């Protein structure tokens, strides 16, 4: 039995396509019908279309404004492909799917890209193996992350189901300034790739139509007849890779077998693959474009956030150099020593800034060793005691842990120093800084608790993001980002809790010794 397509059109609205069967398909305003036509002049259940005896019929379902065929109101009517059915402002055509295939010459068939959507439902209903193939292809394409991998997957899958000897898939010359990609396959070992007929490719790209020929040697669209003869090409199919009316390339397959190995079903299936692959190509290009834009935005943010610190560092080096030059002229060695310290401090700040940027931007290898976390905390506290005394901050240490754990002592020292420095900055008028080291459930915890100004609730979601700072020009916004990065590499986490006006608690959770090694290996792999 022939398969029929129903095509519903209205000016300014998308075209609606579907297939007909012996089961009536109803059009109307009700959301429960098969084709919903949103217009007051259309009844809730206006008309039904169905097949009977191999012919298509339309039947009015007692609608208010009736059904018109070629301008005449009808109750029930058998339809032919040229009939124009009117339901309110909608125009409906019903035609056999087979006429979508246009026979251009005795050896050639073409299929317009607008008709591929209607063929999708037809071919899947007719051949369940096609449904299985399209599902498998869609699943595989969804996992591809690069354009070359995607094109190879499309061609590999297609060569498995087509009686083709060779094939290639080729993208357009300029896809968002990308270099054209081309992947080819041959079924037999030692077989050279198929010749690329630019005339045929241009024809498919311009018309966005699928082409199948059973006599490539006599087809004028093949401009390399010598190559055609040399490769003994008898039959060929070429379809566009399309998505949202954009053509991204072509998909080609040929064969030298006789009789003609390709059928209308092969042309239909390959045309559907062209649209599926075209959508996948579009997704990859959009993803790559988004990634590129995000990278540019990140670079701009990094430059903007660090330019102030870089300028201050350069001013310190420049000022130290001028001071050193004056000291040398006046033989003032005390001033020379001061200038040297200024330059060294500026260089140290520059080194810290670069290290922070590198830690945020890339993975670093951890140098693991068994370390007593309490002893490491004591070392860091000693380095900030003078600053704490200057700020009138009292430090308390509560160490309830004696077991050593595996970690990178230098990196964790850096994290603790950063947290203690932040705590001291938050207590401009003095306060209490408490560092607690303890074992809790399946983790080892270090808590740094201050009695400072705290963090505003609206800032909490952004705290820890690279280049975000609450220090009003005094920080780079990299400190906590580095802390998060280091803790992730250790298989642990950094947790922040804060109450404005009361203080902030930063908790470092390290996995217990039995689980640390496995977690760290996973994080650094």
Describe what you observe in this structure:
The chain is of the alpha+beta class. The chain has helices at residues 116-126, 128-141, 147-161, 198-207, 225-230, 264-330, 333-361, 373-390, 409-426, 479-489, 513-524; strands at 4-9, 16-20, 25-28, 35-36, 47-52, 55-60, 67-69, 72-74, 76-79, 85-87, 90-96, 101-105, 108-112, 166-171, 182-186, 209-213, 235-243, 246-255, 369-372, 393-399, 404-407, 431-440, 443-449, 493-499, 503-511. Helix content is 40%, strand content 27%. Strand 1 (4-9) and strand 2 (16-20) form a beta hairpin. The longest helix is centred in the middle third of the chain and has 67 residues, at 264-330. Residues 99-110 and 515-525 have low confidence and may be disordered.
Question: Could you give the topology of this structure?
Answer:
Elements: E1 4-9, E2 16-20, E3 25-28, E4 35-36, E5 47-52, E6 55-60, E7 67-69, E8 72-74, E9 76-79, E10 85-87, E11 90-96, E12 101-105, E13 108-112, H1 116-126, H2 128-141, H3 147-161, E14 166-171, E15 182-186, H4 198-207, E16 209-213, H5 225-230, E17 235-243, E18 246-255, H6 264-330, H7 333-361, E19 369-372, H8 373-390, E20 393-399, E21 404-407, H9 409-426, E22 431-440, E23 443-449, H10 479-489, E24 493-499, E25 503-511, H11 513-524
Parallel strand pairs: 3-4, 20-22
Antiparallel strand pairs: 1-2, 1-11, 3-5, 5-6, 6-9, 7-8, 7-10, 10-11, 12-13, 13-16, 14-15, 14-18, 16-17, 17-18, 19-21, 22-23, 23-25, 24-25
Helix pairs in contact: 1-2, 1-6, 2-3, 2-6, 3-6, 6-7, 7-10, 8-9, 9-10
């Amino acid at each position: 039995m022939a398969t029929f397509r129903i095509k519903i059109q209205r000016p300014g609205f998308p075209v609606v396509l579907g297939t007909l069967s012996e089961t009536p398909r109803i059009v109307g305003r009700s959301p429960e019908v098969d084709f919903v036509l949103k217009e007051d002049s259309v009844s809730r259940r206006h008309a039904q279309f169905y097949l009977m005896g191999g012919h298509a019929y339309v039947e009015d379902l007692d609608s208010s404004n009736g059904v018109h065929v070629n301008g005449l109101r009808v109750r029930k009517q058998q339809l032919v492909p040229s009939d124009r059915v009117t339901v309110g402002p909608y125009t409906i055509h019903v035609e056999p799917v087979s006429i979508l295939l246009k026979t251009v010459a005795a050896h050639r068939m073409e299929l317009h890209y607008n008709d591929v959507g209607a063929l999708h439902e037809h071919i899947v209903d007719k051949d369940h193996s096609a449904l299985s193939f399209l599902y498998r292809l869609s699943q595989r394409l969804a996992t591809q992350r690069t354009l070359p991998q995607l094109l190879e997957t499309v061609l590999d899958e297609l060569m498995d189901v087509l009686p083709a000897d060779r094939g290639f898939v080729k993208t357009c010359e300029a896809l968002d300034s990308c270099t054209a990609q081309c992947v080819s396959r041959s079924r037999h070992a030692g077989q050279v790739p198929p010749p690329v007929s630019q005339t045929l490719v241009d024809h498919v790209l311009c018309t966005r139509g699928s082409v199948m020929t059973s006599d490539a040697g006599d087809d004028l669209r093949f401009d390399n007849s010598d190559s055609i003869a040399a490769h003994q090409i008898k039959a060929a199919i070429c379809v566009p890779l399309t998505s949202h009316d954009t053509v991204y390339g072509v998909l080609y397959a040929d064969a030298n077998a006789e009789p003609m190995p390709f059928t209308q079903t092969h042309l239909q299936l390959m045309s559907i693959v062209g649209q599926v692959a075209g959508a996948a190509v579009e997704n990859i290009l959009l993803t790559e474009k988004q990634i590129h834009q995000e990278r540019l935005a990140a670079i701009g943010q990094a430059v903007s956030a660090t330019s102030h610190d870089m300028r201050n560092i350069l001013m310190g080096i420049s000022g130290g150099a001028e001071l050193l030059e004056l000291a040398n002229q006046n033989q003032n060695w005390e001033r020379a020593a001061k200038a040297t310290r200024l330059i060294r401090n500026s260089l140290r700040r520059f080194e810290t800034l670069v290290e922070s940027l590198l830690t945020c931007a890339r993975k670093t290898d951890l140098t693991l060793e068994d370390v007593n976390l309490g002893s490491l905390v004591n070392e860091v506290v000693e380095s900030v005691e003078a600053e704490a005394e200057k700020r009138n901050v009292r430090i308390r240490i509560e160490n309830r842990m004696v077991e050593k754990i595996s970690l990178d002592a230098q990196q964790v020292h850096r994290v603790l120093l950063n947290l203690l420095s932040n705590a001291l900055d938050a207590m401009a008028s003095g306060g209490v800084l408490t560092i607690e080291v303890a074992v809790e459930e399946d983790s080892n915890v270090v808590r740094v608790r201050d009695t400072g100004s705290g963090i505003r609730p609206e800032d909490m979601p952004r705290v820890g993001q690279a280049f975000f700072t609450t220090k009003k020009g005094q920080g780079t916004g990299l400190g906590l980002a580095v802390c998060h990065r280091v803790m992730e590499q250790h298989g642990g986490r950094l947790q922040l809790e804060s109450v404005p006006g009361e203080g902030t608690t930063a908790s470092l959770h390290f996995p217990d010794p039995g689980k640390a090694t496995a977690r760290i290996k996973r994080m650094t792999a």
